[in-house]
Amino acid sequence: MEITLVKSLYKETEKFANSSVKVSGWIRTLRDSKSFGFIEINDGTFFKNVQIVFDESLENFKDITKLPISSSLSVEGTVVLTPQSKQPFEIKATKIVVEGKSSSDYPLQKKRHSLEYLRTIAHLRPRSNTFSAVFRVRSVAAFAVHKFFQERGFVYTNTPLITGSDCEGAGEMFKLTTLDLNNIPKDENGNVDFSKDFFGKETNLTVSGQLSAETFALAFRNVYTFGPTFRAENSNTARHAAEFWMIEPEMAFAELKDYMDVAEDLVKYVIKYVLANAPEEMEFFNSFVDKGLFDRLDNVANSDFGRISYTEAVDILKKCGEEFQYPVEWGIDLQTEHERYLTEKVFKKPIFVTDYPKDIKAFYMRANDDGKTVAAADLLVPGVGEIVGGSQREERLDILEKRIEEMGLKKEDYWWYLELRKYGETKHSGFGLGFERILMYVTGMSNIRDVIPFPRTTGSAEF
Amino acid sequence: MEITLVKSLYKETEKFANSSVKVSGWIRTLRDSKSFGFIEINDGTFFKNVQIVFDESLENFKDITKLPISSSLSVEGTVVLTPQSKQPFEIKATKIVVEGKSSSDYPLQKKRHSLEYLRTIAHLRPRSNTFSAVFRVRSVAAFAVHKFFQERGFVYTNTPLITGSDCEGAGEMFKLTTLDLNNIPKDENGNVDFSKDFFGKETNLTVSGQLSAETFALAFRNVYTFGPTFRAENSNTARHAAEFWMIEPEMAFAELKDYMDVAEDLVKYVIKYVLANAPEEMEFFNSFVDKGLFDRLDNVANSDFGRISYTEAVDILKKCGEEFQYPVEWGIDLQTEHERYLTEKVFKKPIFVTDYPKDIKAFYMRANDDGKTVAAADLLVPGVGEIVGGSQREERLDILEKRIEEMGLKKEDYWWYLELRKYGETKHSGFGLGFERILMYVTGMSNIRDVIPFPRTTGSAEF
């Protein structure tokens, strides 16, 4: 008999009523009394389990009652509608075959486990309700991102992860080598001889695909990256990982306002798509992980995001009478406490803060005419703070060269980036969205380690 | 005036007839005579250019005639249908504004350039016809892959790129470190002290996400990865890169046959999707890159793939009378010459070769009852040879442990992989498809360096 997927049983229950089906999956719970029993199995295709009713008419009845949780089965039986029960149907088993008997020391027994403990069994945690929900939402959200951009004609661009230099001048990078670390070849000056390394020079893992993506935007107009990014920062927080996925769109013939429009649409699109395409999982999060989740997401999906300048934001924060741990002055980088105050207490919805002081922003951001600020904007959302950062990019060759020098960077390292300004510059803008940040926001999960299948953080590269 | 995208002009030409529009883009060609001129501009949204007609009624007529190729413009004008010409319409300009004047040393002049030369200007080559076509097809094909799996309920899984050990035992890996290579800390035995490294131990870049993906298949049933993979192999060929993208589906409750069905459907789906969604680009490849392309792709998309065993394949090759460079005996790994002979000369369509000798395949492939072969299958296609490799995975704990020992690997390194067999094993299968391999096949491009935006190969990590 052909296998029927549990997802189909839930989606077309009426169709299967009173008919014979065969399902396969893993035991989530098993209860039995003397002559009959109940098994909930999950077959991986759907968040919810199917209840199997079995009794002593089965020749292997006794063996089945003794099966450990997580044993895999195939079950033939009749679909019986149970409109008066919690679950809309159950399967009355006529035959149960054990595919793989689990061991009685299976760590995911019915009791609730801490998220910290579940991280130590990352190979098994997707079998729990919480992580089944998290990682299916991760998949649905990733597809939403691709769908959003493809529908708008953006070209998906795979920028390289291995880079020849720290081009963004941003933060700590992982070095990459095939040299024997026990016996590093040295040149005549006693320095590492990278000419003997795989690429013939020093290489690192990228911290951002932005500069590469700009080259493609100046050919395809609208492009996006969606891939892994790395930071070797020694920060042991709930929001930082050494390996994470970034979405970095770049748009030619686009100003700061255009980036904000696209970013606002993207965030709303992903939220709506996930709510529509993973409703069982989202109900679970709203009930068991974050009781205010649906209210928060509805608010974001249905409000027009606010837009204020950094200078206005600083004014508001200075006059609001709130005691901040980190005092506010024009010129500081806003801290999470400031960001959350603005979005949660003042605006009560997501806001873009625009036109930051140039000294706290990257060299490639477009200089405003005031000589003090750049055309940058961060998106702040209630409950989290910053979730998107972006800017108009400096397209004027002379100003860009001057900024590179001011920041103590080397022009030669950016020869190809500068040539984009030499050969048909246009206004262009782009932004970066940490995929895990939006996942945490959409699911209510509060630790980045719990939205990445096998997280890599300071001191930890297990599995 | 709002900007109209060139793609819209081509898709809804009738709608725009005789109306005023504004477009922006980069000059691809410019010709002028005394009182009028023609510019072809490309705005990045569509493979084809738009012809702009301008004359001396424009106040900046003279300046425009002197603009270098690749200068960026915005143009206002009237859409005029030209059914008698090569292009279906042109724009009669009423105003042309220069956004960014290019430099006259712009390297992509009209003459044809070699692919080798274009690799040295990887930041500009997407502006050429060939690479505009390649990288839009790359984007369209990537989306096809996601769409295929999402429509079938597969969960997209981001397996880690940083790994704690060489778990597949496959090939050379890149080491990853934050240690100071000029001053490597040593332990008391004089070896590298990895406890001082970022993760507190030795780490590498992954060569495959398969083992991690299996953990997710045993929770979600059907999953796929689609992400970067790395090989530090010193092989300077047209088919190998150090960084490339892999698609690795894993399916629980699935046998070898099920993997072959899904892989066959996937290859056909991607081909059909690209032909339907990038028709201009595919026409270009068929006309200028590979004149037999459409015939070849039609053959693949519309034939039932053949399936023969390795043992049958060896028999055919031994009896065929062909002189091979590498002689055929049962037990050898098939070479590209053998694979191409089978698929091009014998079957004249794609074939799966199944049940390879266990000694030439990986430890995780399921042992067949004959004691000599494993339930593996490679997909061979005309013109290329192997394009997909996969197998049923060994789900029997005792046999898997024995294989790990036989291969000289350490069981401790695979504790979590082995636990998948302990806690509810099921039959399961999966495969790997190199994304660049299928791109080369679909476009007719013959060097992997020409289907990756910024390729990384032995000795080369430019840009």
Summarize the structure in words.
Chain A has helices spanning 6-11, 13-16, 61-65, 115-119, 129-151, 210-220, 256-277, 279-289, 293-302, 310-319, 336-347, 397-406, 415-422, 435-443; strands at residues 20-32, 36-42, 50-55, 72-81, 89-100, 155-156, 162-163, 175-177, 203-205, 222-230, 243-252, 306-309, 351-357, 373-381, 385-393, 428-434. By secondary structure, chain A is of the alpha+beta class. The first copy, chain A, has two domains: 6-100, OB fold (Dihydrolipoamide Acetyltransferase, E2P); 127-170 and 207-450, Bira Bifunctional Protein, Domain 2 (BirA Bifunctional Protein, domain 2). In chain A, strands 6-10-11-16-15-14-13-12 form an eight-stranded mixed β-sheet. A five-stranded mixed barrel of chain A has the order 1-2-3-5-4. Chain A is globular. Chains A and B meet through strand 1, helix 5, strand 6, strand 7 and strand 8 of A and strand 1, helix 5, strand 6, strand 7 and strand 8 of B. Strand 8 (175-177) of chain A pairs antiparallel with strand 8 (175-177) of chain B. Chains A, B: Its main location: cytoplasm. Chains A, B: GO terms for molecular function: asparagine-tRNA ligase activity; ATP binding; catalytic activity, acting on a protein; nucleic acid binding; transferase activity. Chains A, B: One of its GO terms (cellular component) is cytoplasm. Chains A, B: It catalyses: tRNA(Asn) + L-asparagine + ATP = L-asparaginyl-tRNA(Asn) + AMP + diphosphate + H(+).
